[in-house]
Design goal:
Number of helices: 5
Oligomer: single chain
Strand order of the largest sheet: 1-2
CATH architecture: Orthogonal Bundle
CATH class: Mainly Alpha
Distance between the termini: 29 Å
Shape: globular
Order of helices and strands: HHEHEHH
Structural class: mainly alpha
Number of domains: 1
Protein name: DUF1573 domain-containing protein
CATH topology: Helix Hairpins
Number of strands: 2
Strand content: under 5%
Largest sheet: 2 strands, antiparallel
């Protein structure tokens, strides 16, 4: 069932992409959409203030830490919770980003669901050892 939803989405993106069929257009629109996601998150901090970013050096206690200990000491640097308005804007921008990522997949003849499955398998196989 899930593969049908992904394939239907990928086909719908292909059908709806009219002006930006060139790989160069798709790459530039994808990059632009990524910047818009970043900008929306920045605005949630600087304009709305619903979230805050309190960043400093990631403090690793020692080199002999287990993966669980390492996971517990690393922080996202985000405090607070997105308000409904900021969440809506960020989700819209992420949707546009997903649209152009899917367009890129279409232009290159790559299946989005296969990418998701491959990444999922890698995460499940390697777990925390993917080290991202």
């Amino acid at each position: 069932m899930k593969d049908i939803i992904f394939d239907d989405f990928q086909n719908s993106v292909d059908d709806s992409l009219l002006r930006h069929r060139s790989i160069l257009d798709i790459m530039s629109k994808y990059t632009e959409s990524t910047a818009r996601v970043n900008r929306a998150i920045t605005k949630a901090v600087t304009n709305c203030g619903c979230i805050k970013i309190n960043a400093d050096k990631q403090n690793l206690l020692n080199d002999n830490m287990s993966m669980d200990e390492l996971n517990n000491c690393l922080q996202s640097h985000i405090s607070g919770k997105l308000c409904d308005n900021c969440r809506e804007i960020i989700e819209k921008e992420m949707g546009n980003n997903l649209f152009y990522l899917t367009s890129l997949c279409n232009a290159l003849g790559v299946n989005l669901y296969d990418i998701l499955l491959n990444e999922y398998d890698k995460i499940n196989t390697l777990g925390k050892f993917t080290m991202r």
